[in-house]
Specification:
Elements lengths: L5 E8 L4 E5 L31 E9 L4 E10 L13 E8 L2 H4 L2 E2 L10 E9 L2 H4 L3 E8 L7 E9 L11 E4 L5 H6 L5 E9 L15 E11 L11 E8 L8 E2 L10 E11 L8 E8 L6 E8 L5 E2 L2 E2 L7 H12 L5 E6 L4
Length: 350
């Protein structure tokens, strides 16, 4: 568990245009198989209607099955989206905040041509009660458009820490306009403090005993600030690293786990060799932060360092999606050989 440098080889096959990495193995699954793209709470909102009407629902927690249940009954007097046809096609959507990515969204069926839809559906979340009590429930109503141009009709946000769990009855609640907390705070996942360096092949001179025959990328993960707190005791976090497009077990590197700390200090260095300078245009360093639990690890956020071109060796890939900050950080490393480049980058959904 000590802070030692990890080193693996990164060797590219120019014909297959995919790298193979050797010398370090792991039993963990590939990041790409478990991390998905999560849209905003308000993604796809193309409408300009004012929120109105009410929604009837009840909340319950099933202790035996460790399941949070949202009983969505019906809505009344919703706004009309298509005034010419006098219609709305509403459905109800829920998130658990602040980390909508961890638990995902749930939604009811769509009821067509009505402003008084009846659902009688149960939306379920498998979650521990102690974790649930530090969440907020965001329940929103939407008009479903065949072309995906959905319109926001109203919402309600409930702090589950103060909820009366003895109240299992259906109750009516007025729908409200968008909440600023959900708009502005839902995607804040913390920031990563790190440094990176590229050592070109043979650049240290013949007299240097550690002069690499091939290029090396050094990644120094220093610390992370303001992680999402998924439990009252904090989070047990660690960082995974891959060099994409290789997501094999041999590519996988990780830090030790820092327990019960939303501001963990890792101070861990990883070295990938086998890099040629031209490979830097097509590779991407993916660093992801996870909360460690016995049965499963929960994704907290991550960054991708690359040029963000959408292409890797001429092939379109969805992971070459670096933000402007991440691209600038990678470009500075490419132009400053043998120098540590320091950065503070926000974690995001991947």
């Amino acid at each position: 568990e000590s802070d030692t440098a990890s080193e693996i080889s990164f060797q590219f096959n120019k014909h297959k245009k995919t790298p193979s990495i050797g010398s370090h193995s792991s039993d963990m699954a590939s990041v790409s198989s478990v991390s998905g793209s999560v849209l905003s709470v308000y993604s796809g909102d193309f409408g300009s209607v004012d929120a109105q009407g009410t929604v009837e629902f009840a909340l319950d927690y099933d202790e035996k099955n460790r399941e949070f249940q949202v009983h969505v009954s019906q809505c009344k007097d919703l706004a009309v989206v298509d005034e010419k046809k006098g219609r709305s096609d509403p459905y109800v959507k829920t998130y658990l905040l602040p980390d909508k990515a961890r638990m995902g969204k749930r939604k009811t069926s769509v009821k067509k041509r009505t402003v008084n839809p009846i659902y009688n559906e149960v939306l379920r979340y498998k979650i521990e009660k102690m974790v649930l009590l530090i969440q907020k429930l965001n329940l929103s109503v939407w008009h479903n458009d065949p072309l995906g141009r959905n319109s926001f009709l109203g919402e309600i946000e409930i702090d589950l820490a103060s909820w009366d769990w003895s109240n299992r009855k259906l109750n009516w609640y007025p729908l409200k306009p968008r909440s600023l907390s959900a708009v502005n705070g839902v995607d804040h996942r913390g920031v990563m403090n790190l440094s990176i360096k590229y050592v070109p092949p043979g650049s240290l001179g013949k007299t240097c005993p550690k002069n690499p025959p091939t290029g090396e990328v050094h990644i120094w993960v220093k610390d992370v600030k303001d992680l999402l707190q998924l439990r009252p005791s904090g989070v047990d976090s660690f960082v995974k690293c891959y060099v994409l497009p290789d997501t094999s077990k041999k590519s996988y590197q990780k830090t030790r786990v820092i327990k019960r700390d939303t501001n963990p200090v890792f101070n861990h260095t990883i070295v990938y060799d086998g890099f040629h300078t031209e490979d830097l245009k097509d590779a991407c360093v993916e660093l992801t932060v996870w909360d460690h639990e016995k049965l499963t690890n929960h994704f907290l956020g991550g960054i991708r360092l690359g040029l963000g071109t959408g292409l890797s060796y001429g092939i379109p890939v969805d992971w070459m999606d670096s933000t402007q900050e991440e691209v600038a950080f990678w470009q500075e490393m490419m132009t400053a050989a043998n120098e540590w480049i320091e950065g503070l980058l926000p974690l995001r959904s991947l």
